[in-house]
DNA sequence: AGCCGCTTGTGAACGCAGGAACAAAGTCGC
DNA sequence: GCGACTTTGTTCCTGCGTTCACAAGCGGCT
């Protein structure tokens, strides 16, 4: 009918998810209103930037007062699509996969795992967070039966591409990849990469660049 | 001499880490040279952007031929500081912490955990990846004894800030935070945030946005 | 030796994100 | 009822990142 979302920049969407988390915490704490300054401080961003992010949702605050916590929370939740729970499948139940399956943060944010898959027969049948690990062969069946649109890959890098192909073929439209490998997916399938080693290396580089006075003496080779 | 690293943009550093991983794989596979196009494809980036990233290291390719795999790998490794192993401490040995402690990708990239810490007495004494879990009280001692400069927080959000304070007080200069909370650290301490739920929510939003845009008929003005 | 094709490295333009300052608007106090 | 203060929403501007396009350089072939 209208155009409530002309285009929301991706960086803004990421921050909106952070604001939503903070607002949920404030609401649980009994707070009824917040100012942009306080909210920005809790989210770790600039107040002006926060207001600009919120301006993409249309006016949702009261000048001179601030934002009503519950109202703003619900509006962000609606824009992000958190109001309805989303079915996800998780492939690769190793250490990381187990941690993701057990992570309570997903369930409280509108994501539920409807299928845990692994190729190793030893892992199939184990129960993680009340759910059984299924053989990878049942992937298509579960995706079709649950209309899951999001897949999470936590497998070793060697099989990540084939898992990606299977997910895409099964009808999954969005893939979150933890394997340290650039995946190639067909058009229409979004892939988002999370590389934990890269995060550490960036951190180490920044620290090294800044820490010239490090305890280790740098010797030119 | 002049300035070998005037300033390398943070986004470039993150990609350099990816190139390094790809190059290591190519070297292990016996490849001796690569073109920017092939390397960019394997890393999932634009060829021109890759060349610009590499230009921050000075000329390191041969025109008409490409890049020598081993040479480029070593040069990136030196710039990122991977040549010497870096000591890290990990606080919070829950599901995620266990996965991180066991993750082989860190060790092969120059990061070694010299201390695993948890506040729960039940977890103290367990061995993860050949290392014992220590009580949080020993944090200062271990950081001082190992000169660890990087700390990883994988605790619940409620205690993440106090852990951050302890790490900073112990002398840790760089912190990678997995708790869904914006940390405030003293000046001189770098904090990098990884929020898994945010990644999923961004992915869900993009998928939802496209799902809405697809069935809607676009009308030209 | 000279030419040709291929690939790198760099320069410029475009678009986007971030930050600061300003105007609008609503509420509280008098 | 009116003024002033507080806080939002917006606008401008600066800087960065990304992309495209071209010139420079090197190897191979004739």
Attribute tags:
DNA binding (chains A, B); 221 residues; Arc Repressor Mutant, subunit A; DNA-binding; homodimer; 2 domains; two-stranded antiparallel sheet; alpha/beta; Rossmann fold
Describe the structure.
- 2 copies of one chain form a homodimer.
- By secondary structure, chain A is of the alpha/beta class.
- Chain A has 2 domains: 10-80, Arc Repressor Mutant, subunit A (Orthogonal Bundle), CATH 1.10.10.10; 86-200, Rossmann fold, CATH 3.40.50.
- Helix content of chain A is 44%, strand content 17%.
- The first copy, chain A, is built from 9 helices and 9 strands.
- In chain A, the strands form 2 sheets. A 7-stranded mixed β-sheet of chain A has the order 5-6-4-3-7-8-9.
- In chain A, α8 links the parallel β7 (150-153) and β8 (174-177).
- In chain A, α1 packs across α2, α1 (10-28) crosses α4 (69-80) and α7 crosses α8.
- The radius of gyration of chain A is 21 Å and the shape is globular.
- The termini of chain A are far apart.
- At the A-B interface, α1, α5, β8, β9 and α9 of A face α1, α5, β8, β9 and α9 of B.
- Chain A binds a DNA duplex (30 and 30 nucleotides) through α3.
How many domains of chain A?
Answer: 2
Looking at CATH, the homologous superfamily of the largest domain in chain A is NAD(P)-binding Rossmann-like Domain
Overall geometry of chain A comes to globular
What is the rounded distance between the termini of chain A?
A: 66 Å
* Uncertain ranges of chain A: 1-5, 213-221
What's the multimeric state?
A: homodimer
Number of helices of chain A: 9
Q: Give the tally of β-strands of chain A.
A: 9
């Amino acid at each position: 009918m209208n155009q409530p979302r002309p285009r929301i920049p991706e960086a803004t969407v990421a921050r909106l998810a952070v604001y939503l988390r903070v607002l949920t915490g404030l609401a649980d704490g009994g707070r009824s209103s917040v100012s942009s300054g306080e909210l920005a401080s809790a989210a770790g961003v600039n107040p002006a930037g926060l207001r600009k992010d919120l301006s993409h949702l249309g006016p949702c605050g009261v000048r001179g007062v601030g934002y009503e916590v519950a109202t703003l929370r619900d509006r962000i939740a609606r824009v992000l699509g958190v109001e309805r729970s989303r079915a996800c499948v998780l492939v690769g139940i190793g250490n990381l996969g187990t941690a993701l399956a057990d992570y309570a943060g997903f369930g409280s944010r509108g994501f539920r795992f409807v299928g845990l898959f692994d190729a190793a027969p030893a892992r199939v049948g184990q129960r993680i967070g009340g759910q059984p690990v299924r053989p990878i062969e049942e992937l298509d069946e579960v995706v079709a039966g649950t209309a899951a649109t999001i897949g999470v890959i936590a497998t070793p890098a060697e099989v990540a591409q084939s898992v990606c192909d299977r997910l895409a073929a099964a009808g999954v439209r969005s893939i979150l990849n933890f394997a340290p490998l650039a995946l190639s997916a067909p058009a229409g399938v979004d892939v988002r990469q999370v590389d934990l080693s890269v995060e550490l290396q960036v951190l180490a580089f920044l620290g090294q660049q800044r820490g010239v006075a490090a305890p280790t003496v740098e010797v030119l080779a």
